[in-house]
Design goal:
The chain has 273 residues and is of the alpha/beta class. The chain contains nine helices and seven strands, in the order E-H-E-H-E-H-E-H-E-H-E-H-H-H-H-E. It has a seven-stranded mixed β-sheet, sandwiched between helices. Helix 4 links the parallel strand 4 and strand 5. Helix 2 packs antiparallel against helix 6. The longest helix is centred in the middle third of the chain and has 16 residues. It is globular. The C terminus is likely disordered.
């Protein structure tokens, strides 16, 4: 069975590796077209170069950048407005153009909280992506942004509530930790086969390592700490299409996929059990 093409949409360089690096690497390794759109930072900046290296490691193609500025780093995109201040219609239009150009079967982005830290750029990326996935399939919206294309599924990278204590044990207590009830998790993906690639991609964001952001925390962990933190990825399915894979409705708890969009079940071990 073919593996669906996958497009990640994330706020900053490094979010793709931290949130979905295993799934991106797994899809690419299976021969699927795999790409990433990044909402903030601009070509020519150090972090854009680091993003290119991380995507090379993951097999996710060349960077696709919306070109807006990071809410907290104005120099991330000189001359551009912060992403969260840009006109919503313009942000959606730019992302629709990438979706129609790439034509993914599956899109992955941040959850409605913006992941564990709830960064405002993460939250806004979620909002823009949900709107753009729907708009991309409507021929009368953004006719200058390419031929309509409707992805079959949208997945939101998230964390179940039950793993938060173990996560904080590994990385320490943060200002905010957002998570969802375990029963809402749609897919729990064991990404240990691609863990080495995922860690290497995270560490490719060297400026974030140097300033002690999450890649820097990960760089300082022992091997078992990296595995506990990064070897499982959790997703909520937010599908623009009415069909839901049959396996996803079989009994309580999350379906556990080898690949998103249901190419078959697999046994998954929680990263922080």
């Amino acid at each position: 069975m073919s593996v669906p093409s996958l497009l990640g949409v994330f706020a900053h360089p490094d979010d793709e590796s931290l949130s979905a690096g295993g799934v991106l690497a797994g899809h690419a390794a299976a021969g699927a077209r795999t790409g990433v759109v990044t909402a903030t930072w601009a070509a020519g900046t150090r972090r854009a170069a680091e993003l290119a290296e991380a995507l090379r490691i993951l097999g996710a193609g060349e960077p696709r950048m919306l070109g807006f500025a990071d809410a907290r780093v104005p120099q991330s995109a000189p001359g551009s407005v912060p992403f969260i201040e840009a006109p919503l219609d313009e942000a959606v239009r730019r992302l629709v153009a990438h979706i129609r150009d790439f034509r993914p079967e599956v899109v992955v982005t941040h959850d409605a909280y913006g992941g564990l830290p709830g960064h405002p750029d993460h939250v806004h990326t979620h909002r823009v992506t949900v709107l753009a996935v729907q708009a991309a399939g409507l021929d009368q919206l953004y006719p200058d942004a390419g031929e309509p294309w409707q992805p079959s599924a949208l997945y939101l990278a998230t964390h179940p509530r039950s793993v938060v204590p173990a996560l904080t044990e590994v990385v320490g207590v943060r200002k905010a930790v957002y998570s969802v009830p375990d029963e809402q998790i749609t897919a729990a993906v064991d990404v240990r086969p691609w863990l080495e690639q995922k860690v290497a991609a995270v560490l490719a964001h060297r400026s974030e390592v140097e300033r002690g952001a999450m890649p820097g925390v990960i760089a300082g962990l022992p091997a078992d700490g990296k595995e506990r933190l990064l070897s499982t990825e959790w997703y909520l399915r937010h599908s623009p299409a009415p069909a839901v894979a049959a396996q996803e409705m079989d009994g309580p708890g999350p379906a556990q996929w080898t690949f998103l969009a249901g190419t078959g079940p697999t046994t998954s071990r929680g990263a922080c059990q």
